[in-house]
Structures are given as C-alpha cells and as structure tokens.
Amino acid sequence: MTATLEARPARGYAWPPFEKENLVSVRHGAFSGRIISERAAQVRELLLDRFPYLGDLVFLEATERYCRAEARAQILHSFIMETAETEGVEKVKAYLWTEASRADALAAKTGSDLGLDPRGHSAISRDLGLAAGLRQERSALQIDKLQAEGRRLAALKEGA
Q1: pTM above 0.70, yes or no
Q2: CB 30 within 8 A of CB 101
Q3: Beta carbons of 120 and 114 less than 8 angstroms apart
Q4: For the CA atoms of the chain, what is the radius of gyration?
Q5: Quick count: other Cβ atoms within 10 Å of Cβ 37?
Q6: Can you give the residue ranges of every domain in the chain?
C-alpha cells in the first residue's frame, strides 16, 4: 500500500512577520553581537567606575576587547547555571561548556593585560609609573632647554 500526497487547503494560520532584529531564535545570546554589546556596555560602566585609568584613550581597544570577552563569559555562565538548575546539568550541551571555558580564559587574559589581576596590576602600575616618570623627565629637559636658551639670548642681548 502506498501513501499518496494530496493537496489540502491551507489551515488559515497567520503570523505577523518577524520584526527586524528580533530575538525569537536567541537561546542565550553568547553568539549574538547585539546582546554581547549590550552586556559589554554594562561591564564597561562598572570597569571604568572601578578603574578610572582605563578611560585613557591608550586603553580603548584593550578595554573594548575585555568588555566583550567578559560579557560573553557572563552570558554563557548565566545560561549554563540556569539550565543546570532548572533542567539538570546533563541538559547543558557539551559545546557550551567548551565555549564558556574559552570565554573565561579570554576574559582572564584580556583582564590581566588591563591590570585587573594581581600580576597584571603590578605590571601596569610599574608601566604607568615609568611612563609618568618619562613624561616628567621630558618636561624637566624641556624646561632646562628653555632656560638655557633664555640665558643664551640674555647674554647675546647684554653683549650687543
């Protein structure tokens, strides 16, 4: 016996079309640039509140990398913990554990680069102190040069 396909009339279902930039298919947001950006903005606000030196333009790109990495790590962590709590740990897909581990490692590395852990803080404090010292040395040298030039011009004026 073979089944035949026969045309049936439409059932009359009608859904409005999805709006642009909808979130219907998003499960956790760890692969959504928009969701990561929204969380990264929250991370950035807290980060700059706690570490104001990161507001300097020299840190702009590194800070952005850290905020995005930390945002993704937070999103994955929240989703995994919520899923494990409500459905059981076996319901968390294996790839999510791997992605969460990678996201945490990247956030830790980029955070260290910004001085957010003890080793990174020590290095960046040293580097910032060195940079400030060099700026002061350059300023002092410029002042010395200007003073020497002023003395030279004064001597020329007296001799003329």
Answers
A1: no
A2: no
A3: yes
A4: 30
A5: 12
A6: 27-117, 124-160
pLDDT, one tens digit per residue, over 102-130 is: 999 999 999 998 888 878 777 777 777 75
The pair of structure tokens assigned to 78 is 């929240």
Residue with tokens 């990561």: 36
d(CA 123, CA 129): 10
Alpha helices of the chain — where are they, by DSSP H?
Answer: 33-50, 60-87, 94-113, 118-159
103 and 69 in contact (C-beta within 8 Å)?
Answer: yes
Q: 80 phi and psi, to 5 degrees?
A: -65, -45
Q: Residue 42 corresponds to which tokens in the numbers above?
A: 């929250």
Q: Which residues contact 40 (CB under 8 A, 6 or more apart)?
A: 64, 67, 68, 70, 71
Task: Choose among 30, 17, 145: nearest CA to 78.
Answer: 30
Q: How far apart are CA 53 and CA 72, in angstroms?
A: 23
Q: How far apart are CA 108 and CA 91, in angstroms?
A: 27
DSSP 19: P
Q: Tell me how crowded residue 147 is: count the other CB atoms within 10 A of its CB.
A: 10
